[in-house]
Amino acid sequence: MSDLEQRIRGFLRDELGVDEDVSADDSLITSGRVDSAGLVRLAALLERETGRIIPDRDLTPEHFDSIARIVAYVGARG
């Protein structure tokens, strides 16, 4: 598990109350585990952690519906 994935999991668990047993491919947004406010908070965390700006238009299930998608999105923006 990457350091970024660990930080995302910690945020989801500690800040948003997402069950820590969620797999990397489990849905976060479409399942209702993360709502729009949580998504914005998660994006802010990623911006702080990576130093990259995440445009609002990218806050979609395509990029943020699972931990695996988030890690891939951040890696592609690298």
Poorly predicted runs of 5 or more residues: none
Superfamily (CATH H level) name: ACP-like
Label the CATH architecture: Orthogonal Bundle
Structural class: mainly alpha
Query: Oligomer, anyone?
Result: single chain
Distance, first to last CA: 18 Å
Taking the sheet with the most strands, its summary is: none
List how many beta strands DSSP finds. 0
Mean pLDDT: 94
What does this structure look like?
56% of the residues lie in helices and 0% in strands. By secondary structure, the chain is mainly alpha-helical. The mean pLDDT is 94. Helix 1 (3-16) packs antiparallel against helix 2. It has helices at residues 3-16, 36-50, 61-64, 67-77. It has a single domain, classed as Non-ribosomal Peptide Synthetase Peptidyl Carrier Protein, Chain A (Orthogonal Bundle). The chain starts with a helix and ends with a helix.
Secondary-structure map:
Elements: H1 3-16, H2 36-50, H3 61-64, H4 67-77
How would you sum up this structure in a few lines?
By secondary structure, the protein is mainly α.
